[in-house]
Amino acid sequence: MRFITAISLLLVSLCMALPLKAEVVNFYAWGGSQEVNNYLRWAQKELKAEGIQLRHNKVADASEVVKQLIEGQSNADLIWINGENFHALKKAGALRSVVGEIKAINQVNPELNWQTDFGESVNGLEVPWGVGQFNLISRPGLFAQNTVSAEALLNVAWDNKGRLSYPKPPDFHGTTFLKSLLLSLHSQQREVFQQPRNSVAAKALTEPLWNYLDKLHPLLWQQGENFPSSAGEQISYLANGQLLMAVSFNPNDYKVLVNHGRLPGGVERHTLSDKAITNTHYLAVPISSRNPEEAKAVIEFLLSEKAQQRKADINRWGDPSVLKNKPQSEGKGSSLLEPTNDFHASWQDYLEREWSARYQ
Amino acid sequence: MVRTLSIVVWLLLIILPIGSGVLFLLLSSFHPQTVVNSAALVNLLSEYESIVGSFMLAVVAPLGACYLALWMAPGLLQRPRLQQLLSPLLSIPHVSFAVGLMLLMSPSGWLIRLVDSVSGLFPSPPAGWPLPEKSLVTVMVVLVLKELPFLLLMISAQLKQLPVSSWLTQAQSCGYSERQAWWRIVAPELLRRLTLPMAAVIIYSLSVVDIPLLVGSNTQALLAQRVYEWTFQFSTDSQVKSITGAWVLLAMAFVLLLINTRHAAMYRCLVLCKKVNTRSAWWNSNKASQYVWALLGILALAIIVILALQSLASHWFYPTLWPASLSLERWQTEGPYLAEPASYSFWLALTSALFGTLAAIVLLQRQRQKAANAFYWPVLIALFIPQVPLILGWQFVLREPLSDGWQIGWVLWSHAVYTLPYSYLVLYGAYVRFDQQWLTRAQSLGYSAREAWWRIMLPMLKQPIAVAFAVAFAVSIAQYLPTQWLGQGLTPTLTTEAVSVASGGDWRIGSLYALLQMLLPLVVFVAIGLIRTQSYAEHS
Amino acid sequence: MLNIRNLNIGTLSDSAMTPLLSVEELTINKGEIVTLMGPSGVGKSTLLRWVLGESLPYFCIEGELTLNGKNIGDLSIAKRQLGMMFQKGGLFPHLTVKENCLFAQKARSVLPVKQQKGKASTMLKKLGLWEKWSVYPDSLSGGQYARIALICSLLAEPQAMLLDEPFSALDANLREEVRQWAFAQLQEKEIPTLLVTHDRADACGRILKLEQGEIQQEVANV
Q: In this structure, what are the phi and psi dihedrals at residue C135, rounded to the nearest 5 degrees?
């Protein structure tokens, strides 16, 4: 018994001795990219000089922290989100309106359509951090042209049976793949997808897509019975030759991933349909944050020219800047594709639902 | 004293966690927005493929691992040192093991590269073999291989408690071959004693999420995997599905555990009715099982080597057999950032394994006092409630104290909730079957009951206690969601880092963390393998 | 002198009590060996365990027990100063022979460790088992095991000895040798000894037969 008492005392004293820092900015961000992690480590050091302790709490999926925020159980001061996660938090009223209080917002490129996030109005609840442009990365010579139409993709699939695939919706890469195909199949009616799904003939508009996929799927990897679970997984399959193609939301990934030894040299970037679906990824401050002022200071820093320039460096993260003044590193190989706006938000859920009803 | 402690353990590590989890599930089930009704159930049952798949997995994988372990176990009798071979396999976290296996056996894996480099047959990877990237078969193979060492460890502990060699001699004198005697005499007794470890294995196979997410089919997903995915999709529809699914999983667990309790008896019936075949099959020989032991050893080594190579490779693409260049760069970059997660991992695992093992001893000692030797099934319940609603339930109940800088304490507690059942079931057999006569004898020499416990029972049980501790240690190391949620990001461990880093699919950095994750349990498992134990079965 | 009086043993099942064995009076004098014989199930082992002081949850037992005139019925096992040698479990498997010998003395002996060691080693040397001093019990033969187990019991200087089929694990020729040696030791030390067995060949001293719930007759005095 004395032994047990001694051990418990030891443990309690250990627990007390372990440092617990309270006054820090808890930044919940996806930890799956070492380039992003290293970038945030740099930011951490820089911010320390300003007296702010930034803590990168790595998560496997941003939805983990979203779930916690909705349940009211999170200590997050700052989160990195977009799309569906933003919608869920907006609906739950869990985000603080911060855009108006961020000075650097004036420096943001006005051409960037950041006021809607996957078609949902931002309403000042999140601050643009970086730019996503949907693109295909392929083994050299797979596609003849820079832009790949739905038809061209089908032809390539015929010639390379079992070697193409796309991430499984509802992964947002997968859903965007479907959207791009829709744009290609309706190249004359691009604007119709900017409208709410209910106000247009969605069923008729999507019918060609399902017909197309019915033809495409048997030609895909594992006959379309399984799909890569994420874009990251598909990149690995591309690296090892199981697949000849991957998808990405970073227009510089075809260089960045080669620089980091993730993909073999020579891979090419293509646009599915004639323009790249472009959107923004954001930083947001939850209402429950205990340090909103510090969190905003972190946002200011991350939007500074220095931070954005380093972010765009294709030897590092390579994520395009959101600022008006193009950083010099854009000249060092960072390049944007011709953009097109994302669909209205109501399409997202619709496409995902219809897809799983048919193919899952 | 023991009584008070056992009440504390019950309240703190069983009733509080399970109660709050079930309370949360019930509240969600009757919440107007996410109410579970028959329509939701019918809806779920209509997608029966996931239920059938989960059921298949939870039956086939544990049985496969169990009989493979029984088939290989005579090797442990001849060479007890073989147990050391299990240590690396036991310490590799499940996901890392799956990744290592895929790096070896997937279509672009090392095996195919080897064949290609010799024959040039595969300029590009084949489709869907040797192990398909995504299928139920792959999940099964991973689970069988990962559960096999655990069951072998459990068998090895039991073999030290049974006079197996004299049983075998006796049976051979009646004309049975050694292998026949093994299957007819020793296996039924071992199976009886494996009921609990098998329960853990079954529950694990039914509720495992991370492995099917990695290598399972994603169009015909398993139920646990779908429940997990639905939880993180925020539409009302998905939320209802996730709660309904959690109940279905619970029901399946109960049914499977019920069947499991009859397993040993069914086997006994079957094997005793079976005619004795005098000619023994080629596969049922010690030689064949020795080859499998060797294969298992090679596999463990190969997985460690390939993870190590990955972590050192600057790049390594198909079809090259070896990485173009190796560098320590990745290790050097990560180095300064490893101290914090490594120390949290270590302290959490050490303390929660200690707590879990002590709590298990307290419960078992109380059972001895009450002469109530039946297994406490409630101890296992925490293992088969899906983790997401369970932990949300904890947060729901503990909300106030949680937000007051006590995160580390709660993380420790949550790990202990998971280490207790494992310690308990590893220790149960040896503890309740401990012969009272040893204690009586010590007391007759003048020692008090307490002294006899400390000086006789504890040292005689040091082997099973050490195994229980080691298994608990490994269990704590592997916890992701409780650490992440209850720790609120303030207690990063090697596992939280590993899981989030791995979500990007870059296995070079993933392998680095996988190796680190494996290192701590490996030290513990090797250390317990070195403990000198006498056989307690002879002379008794 | 060990004395048992008015002993009633009953079995408990579903709170109903079935009488099993009753002993009006049984005295074992200094240097005397008493054998209780009877078929299994008659309650002889239960009697022995009650004397030893074990708690027996499935039995209802009452009776008086005195050792050298002192009532020991309410004492714990540790305080009764009784030695035991049962079918199994004579030597602790996790201790070497030496450690077993020291463990047996440590709780009661007031001697310094050095003398305890000397006492044990003298006894082992006398038996010719000195080379087993630092081995673990699992490497002893059956005969060596039984002898060393008895030595350990004697080292604790018990006021009485309780034996329950102590030689049943030994094979026939060895058994007789060990048996003779053991009783010689006990008689030399003048320790009152109660032996229970179902085997006539094991019996020694005054032999009492248990039948139909009581001591039937005094069979013989070997």
A: -95, 165
**Contact yes or no, B with C (3+ CB pairs under 8 Å):** yes
C-beta atoms of A242 and B395 within 8 A: no
Q: Are residues B202 and B282 in the same domain?
A: yes
In whole angstroms, what is the distance from residue A345 CA to residue A123 CA?
Answer: 14
Residues of A in contact with B217 (CB under 8 A): 225-226
Neighbouring chains of B at 3+ CB pairs under 8 Å are: A, C
Q: Which of residues 154-193 of A touch B (CB under 8 A)?
A: 162-163, 168, 170
Spatial separation of the C-alpha atoms in residues B160 and B464, rounded to whole Å: 10
Residue B28 neighbours by CB under 8 Å, 6+ apart: B34, B239, B243, B389
- Are residues C88 and B451, on separate chains, in Cβ contact within 8 Å? no
Contact present, A and C (at least 3 Cβ pairs less than 8 Å) = no
Find chain B residues with C-beta within 8 A of C153's C-beta.
Answer: 445
Q: Please give the domain boundaries of chain C with CATH numbers for all domains.
A: 2-221 (3.40.50.300)
Q: Which residues pair with A276 in a beta bridge?
A: A339
B457 and B405 in a common domain: yes
Range in A260-264, B110-114, C167-171 with the lowest mean pLDDT: C167-171
Classify residue B245: in a domain, yes or no: no
pLDDT band at A108 (very low <50, low <70, confident <90, very high): confident
Complex-level ipTM: 0.89
Residues C4 and C26: beta-carbon distance below 8 Å: yes
CB distance B443–C77 less than 8 Å? yes
Regarding whether B187 and B113 lie in a shared domain, the answer is: yes
Mean pLDDT, rounded, for C121-126: 87
User: In which domain, by residue range, is B205 found?
Assistant: 52-222+260-327
Answer yes or no: do B368 and B462 share one domain: yes
- Judged against a pLDDT cut of 60, whether residue A21 lies above it is answered with no
Number of domains in chain B: 2
Q: Write down the pLDDT at residue B540.
A: 39
Inspect the interface and report whether the beta carbons of C94 and B534 lie closer than 8 Å: yes
Do C52 and B444 lie within an 8 Å CB cutoff?
yes
Least Cα separation, residue B465 to chain C (angstroms): 15
Place of tokens 């290989």: B72
Phi, psi of C70 (to 5 degrees): -100, 135
The answer to whether residue B283 is domain-embedded is yes
Among C132, C74, C72, C79, CA closest to C101: C132
Same domain, B122 and B208: yes
Let me know whether B367 and B296 are in one domain. no
A67, B231: Cβ pair inside 8 Å? yes
C27: three-class secondary structure by DSSP: strand
3-state secondary structure of A171: coil
**Where does a domain end: B273, B300, B327?**
B327
- The answer to the question of residue B42 being in a domain is no
Q: Do residues B344 and B411 both lie within one domain?
A: yes
Average pLDDT of chain A?
86
Task: Give the tens place of pLDDT for each residue, A297-330.
Answer: 999 999 998 898 888 888 888 888 888 876 554 4
Is B44 a domain residue? Answer: no
Residue of B nearest to A91 (CA): B234
Which of B209, B355, B500 to probe by mutation at the A interface, max A CB count within 10 Å?
Answer: B500
- Domains defined along chain A, listed by start: 23-130+279-336 (3.40.190.10), 133-278+341-359 (3.40.190.10)
Residue A331 reports pLDDT greater than 50: no
Q: Does B508 touch chain A (CB under 8 A)?
A: yes
Which of A208, A206, A226, A204 lies closest to A217 in space, CA to CA? A226
Q: What DSSP element (H or E) covers B158?
A: helix B136-159
B235–chain A Cβ distance below 8 A for any pair: yes
Domain closes at, from B273, B294, B327: B327
Give the tokens for residue C78: 């540790």
- Mode of pairing for the β-strands spanning C206-211 and A120-121: unpaired
Q: How far is A15 from chain B (nearest CA, A)?
A: 7
